[in-house]
Amino acid sequence: MDTKFNRRTFLKTSAAASAILPTFNILAEDKDGVIGPDDDQVNVAVIGYGAEGEILTDDLVKIPGIRVKAVCDIWEHRRKLARGRLKHLGHVVKVYEDYREMLDTEDKNIDAVVVATPDWMHAEHACYCLRKGKPVYCEKEMSNQLSRAREMVLAARETGLPLQIGHQRRSNPRYMHAINNVMRKNNVLGRITHAYGQWNRSVAPFTVVGEKIHIPIKTLQKYGYENMEQFLNWRWFAKYGGGPMVDLGSHQIDLFFWVWDCAPISVTAIGGNDYYNRQMNDNVMAIYEFKTKEGVVNRAFYQVLTTSSRGGFYEQFMGEQGYLTLSEIPARGNTAAPEPGYDWSKFVKMGILNDAKAPVALQVKRSSDASLDARVTKAAAGMPLPVDLLKPAHMPHLENFFLAVRRKDPKLLNCDAELAYESAVAVLAANRSVAEHRTVYFKPEEFKVPADAKHDPAKAAGEQPKA
Ligand SMILES: NC(=O)c1ccc[n+]([C@@H]2O[C@H](COP(=O)([O-])OP(=O)(O)OC[C@H]3O[C@@H](n4cnc5c(N)ncnc54)[C@H](O)[C@@H]3O)[C@@H](O)[C@H]2O)c1
Fold first, then answer.
1. Nearest residue to 198 via CA among 41, 315, 27
2. Is residue 454 part of a domain?
3. Are residues 214 and 267 both part of a single domain?
4. Confidence at residue 72, expressed as pLDDT on a 0 to 100 scale
5. Strand locations in 60-190, DSSP E?
6. How far is the CA of 247 from the centre of ligand 1 (A)?
7. What is the pLDDT of residue 372?
8. To test the ligand 1 pocket, which listed residue (47, 49, 52, 228) has its Cβ within 8 A of the most ligand atoms?
9. Predicted local distance difference test score (pLDDT) of residue 358
10. With 90 as the cut, is the pLDDT of residue 80 above it?
11. 262 and 401 share a domain?
12. Reduced to 3 states, what is the DSSP secondary structure of residue 269?
C-alpha cells in the first residue's frame, strides 16, 4: 500500500463520517486513537463486474485512497463496460477473463479483492484470493452450498486475513443505531417477541440480451454455464444460486440474529415454484424460532414474493412496549412507535428517537385514526430515527472493510465470515424445509465451523462444482 492520501484528507473524511454516526462511529471506538495507516492507498481488483460489481466499484472510487487496478469478468461485454466506466472515473484498469491469470499477473499491484460473482463462485474466488494473501470483500450469500461457505470460513481462519461478507446493513449507521442503541442497549421496545421481514417484487421475465453480446458457448461451458439463459438468470438455478429466498432473505434474516443475539432453534417454511416454470422457489414463507440467552422463545416471519411488489422490502420488530420498522430505503421504514401507556419522551431527550411531531422529511405519514373501533389498538404517531445514511447503501460496509485492511485487523470487520456463516446456515435451511415439507431443527453447534475442522481440497477453491 502506498501512502498517497494524506492525513488531512482522511481526517476530513472521518469527520464527515462521524457526523452521520452519532452513536456508533467505528473510528471513535478506536482504542489507541491512532489513525496513521488509514490514509494508505489500497489497490483493488474486482472479480465479477455485473450489476452489483458495478455498484460496488462506483462506491469504491469515492473512498479516499482506493484505486481500482484490475477487473475480471468472463463476459467481454462487461469487461469493456468496466474499462470505459472506470476510465471515465479516473481509474485505469487492466481487464481479465480468468481470475487466476489476474491474480498471478497483478499480484504485486493488488492489495485487496472485491468479489461480486454469482453465489456458487464465491468460495472458489474468495478462497483463492485469501490464499494469495489478499483480503477479500465478498458479496452475500456466502454460497448457495453450506460446504463451500464453510471453506470460506476456514480460508479466513487459516490466512488470518479480513474476509468481509456483503451484508451491508451491518455497517449502515441507521441499522446500527436502531439495533444496537434503540433495541439492544436501551431496550426501548421491551422484549421483542416477534419480528417480520419481507421482500416483495412484481412479476419479471427472465433477462435476455441481444445475440451480438452473447458469450461464445465454449467460453460459457468452460466457466460452468450451459447457456446464456442460465448464465444471465443464475439466481433461479440450483447449481448457481439459492432462488429469491437466499438472494433476498440473506440480508434480512441476518437482522434477526443481530437483534436477538442468538441463532434460531428451528425453521418451518412453505413455498414453491408455483408461478414460473423455474427451478427455484418463487415464493417462500418461513417462520424461525429463536431461543434467546435469557431462555425465551421469540418468532420471526419472513416472506419473499416474486409476483407482487406490495410493500416492497422492510423489517419490523415488535416488542411489548413498542415496535420499530426499518428498511434500507428510509421512506419504507424509519420509525418506532410506543404501545399505549408507554411514554418515550425520555428517549427523545436522550437523542435516541426524534419527536413524532418533529418536521422530519422521512417521517412516515399515518392515515387518520377516525375509523378506529374497539377492536383496534390506537396507534401512536411514528417517531423517526435521528440517524441517517447520507452515502450509497454499500459504502459504509466497504469503508469498514478497508479500515480492517489498513489496520491489518480482521476483528474490525462488521460482518466477517464466521458471523455471516451463522445466517447462511439458517437461510439455506429454509429451502430445505420447503423441499422436505418439514420443520428443520438446528443444533447450536451447527452455526459454527468447528475449531478443528480441516480444509477439504475437494470443496476448496479451484473446484468446479458439478451440474
Ligand atoms: N449486497 C447487495 O445488496 C447485493 C445486491 C445485488 C447482488 N448482490 C450479490 O452480488 C453478486 C452478483 O450479483 P449481480 O446481481 O451483480 O449478478 P450479475 O449476473 O449481474 O453479475 C455477475 C457477474 O459475474 C460475472 N461472472 C460470472 N461467473 C464468473 C467467473 N467465473 N469469473 C468472473 N466473472 C464471472 C458475470 O459475467 C457477471 O458480469 C451475487 O452474489 C449477489 O447475491 C448483492
1. 315
2. no
3. yes
4. 98
5. 66-72, 94-96, 112-115, 136-138, 163-165
6. 11
7. 52
8. 52
9. 64
10. yes
11. no
12. strand
Residue nearest to atom 33 of ligand 1 (CA): 73
User: 328, 179, 318: which is closest to 259 by C-alpha?
Assistant: 179
Q: Do residues 43 and 156 share a domain?
A: yes
Q: Could you identify the residue written with the cell 409476483? A: 307
The model carries a pTM of 0.90
CA of 118 to the centre of ligand 1 (A): 4
The reply to whether 22 falls in a domain is: yes
Cα(387) to centroid of ligand 1, in Å? 30
Centre of ligand 1 from the C-alpha of residue 117, in Å: 4
Question: Is 233 a member of any domain?
Answer: yes
User: Does residue 287 share a domain with residue 221?
Assistant: yes
| Three-state secondary-structure class, residue 440 | strand
Same domain, 148 and 209: no
What is the reported pLDDT for 369? 42
The CATH number given to whatever domain includes residue 163 is 3.40.50.720
Task: Pick the atom of ligand 1 nearest to 119's CA.
Answer: 41
DSSP alpha helix (H) spans, 275-390: 345-349
Report the atom number in ligand 1 closest to the C-alpha of 124: 31
* Ligand 1 lining (C-beta closer than 6 Å): 47-53, 72-75, 78, 99, 116-119, 121, 139-140, 166, 168, 223, 247
Q: Which structural domain range is residue 122 located in?
A: 7-171+393-416
459 secondary structure, DSSP code = G
Lowest average pLDDT, out of 7-21, 172-186, 227-241, 433-447, goes to: 7-21
How many structural domains does the chain have?
2
